[in-house]
User: What shape does this take?
Amino acid sequence: MLKWYKNLYVGNTAKKKEKAIRRKINCGLGTFDIYVVTVAAGRGNNLDIFSAGQLLKAQVRKRCPMIVGIAVGYEEALEIVEQIVKDVWERTGTVEVRSWLLSDQEG
Assistant: This one.
């Protein structure tokens, strides 16, 4: 079962198809040009971006960290990362993105 951030960041293009995109990702169906932003798998990083198509692989799906954003295209995924960092900076005065997202999800 995939974990989704409660305040999911959705790119402008992805907003038009958010429900369909989430359904396809949850069901393990193919997606074209959809990217997910996740909490980084490695503790030394904050965020990862990868193609949602990677989630068709059982091993990737099983180990997928919490999804915090969805985007149509890699450029839109970069815009989401920029927005997340900006939001964390405005709320905390730091760029401790990973720890803020995880604590926000719990609280």
The mean pLDDT is 95. The longest strand covers residues 4-10. The first helix runs from residue 12 to 15.
